[in-house]
Design a protein that fits this description.
This protein has about 850 residues and is an alpha+beta fold. About 45% of the residues lie in helices and about 15% in strands. The chain contains 35 helices and 25 strands. An eight-stranded mixed beta sheet has the order 18-25-24-20-21-22-23-19, covered by helices on one side. A six-stranded antiparallel beta sheet has the order 9-8-7-6-12-13. Helix 27 runs antiparallel to helix 28. The longest helix has 26 residues. The mean pLDDT is about 90.
Length: about 850
């Protein structure tokens, strides 16, 4: 394998040979795009150094030092000298690291390895190449690889050597809006001189947003600092004072957007590109890589505008759902579409990034849908409801269904089919009997599922059953609404009536767990065992049957009753508590530390129930002549509203039974040698589980890798449009109040926390969740990002290094905030709104 390759001979398939940056530059060169000429020192050269210097097994600091002290071997040095001579006598070049784990679709590695600009002379080039190799083992690069789950030993480094562009102006270009997600907008940051000033965040650049041929946003930075080349090699940063004139003409802005569109079309995905315009006005493309932070848009069959609501997030799941879990939700959602909407072809949901989304386009194009669905969300996911209401004025969502009658007829048909009117009457007349009847549904569901396949059970035993249960709980909330109309209430009074509701399966489970802890505390040997051993030791002893009898038997009884439940339990693919009791044993252990009598769960529940009963009497007295009716309505609320948890509980109970059947199939597939482990079956869909031949291990390996990668994603949109826009981020633009600090929106999201002002990352410490306030950041700051809850930078633009990494790590960020370091002090409680580009001090009463 050659030690050096001309960029013109490299393409995207050669990642292992040349690294990500060189593979992209070679691909762009071969596509005829304006890339400066150069060559790549291949990864074979790095392997030569690694073997010669014995780097295998060394800690990062020693490996880096060993490379820096080494001489480039004679043959390799000669090959590099000849390639450099081919660029011209003492040509000024950029020497740039190109790791095999770099510029990837899921991790950009922006700035994690080193680049050296305006390098002149053979010896200087050889030294820069050696320093690039060593940068593979800097603390920041090692930390970044660990964060992204990339094996250090599997990473190799190529080095790109390119002709320097004598830049009059340069910067970065995103072919999609990295803050709002919108795919049809290009975002450009530009500043005079070399692009390092923009990428590093050393300047507040000019910022342009282009939609088609229209420049829809133009914000001029001060551009105080200029990074320029020095005669004979090297660069310097010069303070040139504030410069309010734009550094790009409108024509140049549009040319850059057109170049970005060409690059994106070549790769078929949004790109993060670096560019330079020389003194003669020629445009050069110096880098392109995928934008790693955009949330993928769910696939849809046509090009029509769509609105997607994240069902996963509404259920409290930021983590991805396993393939088996998504397959289960697809079956249930499809059944819901067929029964509720009456569409036999309904899929019910779609997916992206391992999360489940519901297409709400037709709901929002209906007057009835707009009136009903956001109100449902108001009580479960109010932020999503607010976002959806903000879309009503979008011309792409014009009303197409204005009459309520089709919806009314559909509801009436469903009510007749599932006997809802008689269920409502029975609940009003005899609520205790209605509750008992609803609670008997669990046994019927499990019995019906026994005779069906997994898919049939999900289709036939969830959605068709819920309408026989849900109306009973809805009567309770309807009575609460009636009481609110019959009597004047103060804020929070009706919510008090809902405290400590009876007939709530989740509350019953919690109290059972508390009672188990009380039983263990009363037995000396059991209490000491839980105090002295850690959770993992207790789990091992429980599985071996070695806990004191009162704890062993109590835990077994609890798990027999509630073991089908779990954290993130709507994902059928995740272990239940009966599979892994670690969480439950940890909770019991924490309960044993609870000595405050007033804070005990049973005391809290009893206190809440007493407050609710007292509130009913207070409201009844206030209603005077309507008092008996208010009392009747609120008593029905107390007895029936607790069933609100029961429909989901039925689905989770069924999941527990089906999961056991799937686990048995996993054992069979493992025994056949088709899976590496029985539990890998949950990375298959149902058809794959049923298959009778074929090696399923490659499929599982790919899905596990995707799943692990998605576990690291920290920003999930509540609502997502088919053009990639996240409306929550797009709508909150520069809404500020007096006293707010206004900068550039860099990474969507909002967080409130304590500020930590850091001017030098060396030796700096950041507590988890603290907001990092910095003058600007380069890759040396990256380790601090791992614990930061948010980022505020005094300098920089939306495409600077700090902004890019903040988006990758999913932390809200605002950059280019004037006087941030003087107006924010360590310990201040601030709110960073990375969508609006605003930093707010916590206000009184907040």
């Amino acid at each position: 394998m050659p030690l050096v390759l001309d960029l013109r001979s490299i393409d995207a398939t050669m990642l292992a040979t040349v690294g990500g940056k060189a593979a992209n530059l070679g691909e762009l060169t071969r596509a005829g795009l304006p890339v400066p000429h150069g060559f790549c020192v291949t990864t074979d050269a790095y392997r030569t150094i690694s073997a010669t210097e014995g780097l295998a097994g060394l800690d990062p600091a020693k490996a880096r030092r060993r490379i820096l002290e080494a001489e480039v071997p004679g043959e390799l040095a000669e090959v590099i000298r000849r390639a450099y001579a081919g660029l011209g006598d003492d040509a000024a070049v950029a020497v740039r690291s190109s790791a095999t784990a770099e510029d990837l679709p899921f991790a950009s590695f922006a700035g994690q390895q080193d680049t050296y600009l305006n390098v002149v002379g053979t010896d200087a080039v050889l030294d820069a190449v050696r320093r690039c190799w060593a940068s593979l083992w800097t603390d920041r690069a090692v930390s970044y690889r660990e964060t992204n789950g990339i094996d250090h030993g599997a990473v190799q480094l190529g080095v790109v050597v390119q002709q320097m562009v004598d830049s009059a102006v340069s910067g970065v270009l995103f072919t999609a809006n990295p803050v709002t997600g919108r795919r049809d907008q290009a975002v450009i940051d530009a500043s005079p001189g070399l692009g390092e000033a923009v990428v590093s965040g050393a300047v507040n650049p000019d910022h342009f947003v282009v939609d088609g041929q229209e420049i829809v946003e133009r914000r001029l930075g001060d551009k105080r600092f200029l990074v320029c080349s020095l005669a004979g090699g090297g660069t310097e940063k010069v303070d040139v004072g504030e410069n309010s004139a734009p550094c790009l003409t409108d024509r140049q802005v549009r040319q850059l957007a057109a170049l970005g569109a060409e690059v994106q079309a070549h790769y078929g995905s949004p790109q993060d590109a670096e560019w330079a315009i020389d003194a003669q006005g020629a445009l050069h493309l110096t880098q392109s890589r995928p934008i790693t932070t955009l949330f993928p848009v769910p696939e849809h069959a046509d090009d029509d505008f769509r609105v997607y609501f994240c069902f996963s997030l509404a259920q409290g799941l930021e983590r991805p759902i396993t393939p088996a879990g998504r397959a289960a939700i697809r079956e249930i959602a499809g059944a819901a579409g067929r029964i509720i909407i009456g569409d036999p072809s309904s899929q019910g949901c779609t997916e992206a990034a391992g999360r489940v989304f519901i297409d709400l386009t037709n709901v929002l194009r209906s007057r009835t849908g707009r009136a009903f669905f956001p109100r449902v969300l108001d009580v479960m996911e109010a932020r999503s409801a607010h976002v959806l209401r903000g879309l009503y004025d979008d011309p792409r969502l014009g009303l197409t269904h204005t009459s309520p009658w089709p919806a009314i007829r559909r509801v009436a048909r469903l009510a007749r089919r599932f006997h809802a009117p008689s269920t409502v009457v029975r609940a009003l007349v005899n609520p205790e009997a209605a509750v008992r009847r609803a609670r008997r549904t669990e046994a019927r569901v499990l019995k019906a599922a026994e005779a069906r396949s997994v898919e049939e059970a999900l289709r036939d035993c969830v959605i068709p059953v819920l309408p026989t249960v849900a109306p009973t709980a809805l009567v309770g909330f309807a009575m609460l609404g009636l009481a609110g109309r019959l009597v004047r209430t103060e804020p929070g009074e009706l919510q008090t009536v809902l405290r400590s509701l009876p007939n709530n399966v989740t509350t019953e489970m919690d109290l059972d767990l508390w009672n188990l802890a009380r039983t263990i505390r009363a037995e000396r040997d059991a209490a000491e065992a839980f105090q002295e051993a850690n959770v993992q030791e207790l789990v091992a002893r429980y599985r071996a049957g070695g806990l004191p009898p009162v704890a062993q038997d109590g835990l077994r009884a609890f798990l027999d009753q509630w073991g089908h439940r779990a954290v993130a339990e709507i994902d059928l693919g995740l272990p239940r508590w009966s599979d892994d009791p670690t969480h439950i044993i940890g909770v019991v252990r924490n309960y044993l530390r609870l000595n405050d009598e007033q804070a005990r769960p049973d005391a809290v529940f009893a206190r809440g129930a007493a407050e609710a009963e007292a509130m009913i009497e207070r409201l009844a007295r206030r209603a005077k002549g309507r008092g008996p009716l208010v009392r009747f309505a609120l008593r029905r609320t107390r007895l029936l509203a607790g069933l609100r948890e029961y429909p989901k509980y039925l689905a989770i109970t069924l999941f527990g039974a089906l999961r056991a059947r799937i686990a048995e199939r996993g054992t069979e597939l493992h025994a056949q040698g088709r899976l590496d482990a029985a539990q890998d079956v949950f990375f298959l869909d149902f058809a794959e589980m049923r298959s009778t031949d074929g090696d399923l291990r490659p499929t599982v390996a790919v899905r596990k890798e995707e799943y692990e990668r998605e576990l690291r994603r920290r920003h999930i949109p509540r609502v997502l449009l088919s053009d990639g826009t996240e409306p929550e981020a797009a709508a909150r633009t520069m809404l500020s109040a007096p006293g707010d600090l206004v900068g550039t929106a860099a990474s969507a999201g909002e967080i409130t926390g304590h500020a930590r002002v850091v001017t030098d990352p060396v030796g700096a410490h950041l507590e988890p969740g603290e907001i990092l306030v910095a003058p600007s950041t380069d890759p040396g700051w990256t380790p601090l990002f791992l614990t930061a809850g948010g980022l505020v930078m005094e300098m920089g633009g939306a495409n600077s290094h700090g902004a890019v990494v903040a988006r990758e790590y999913g932390i809200p960020a605002v950059v280019g905030v004037p006087d941030a370091l003087t107006r924010i002090e360590t310990g201040d409680v601030i709110t960073v709104d990375g969508s609006a580009g605003v930093v707010r001090a916590q206000r009184e009463g907040a």
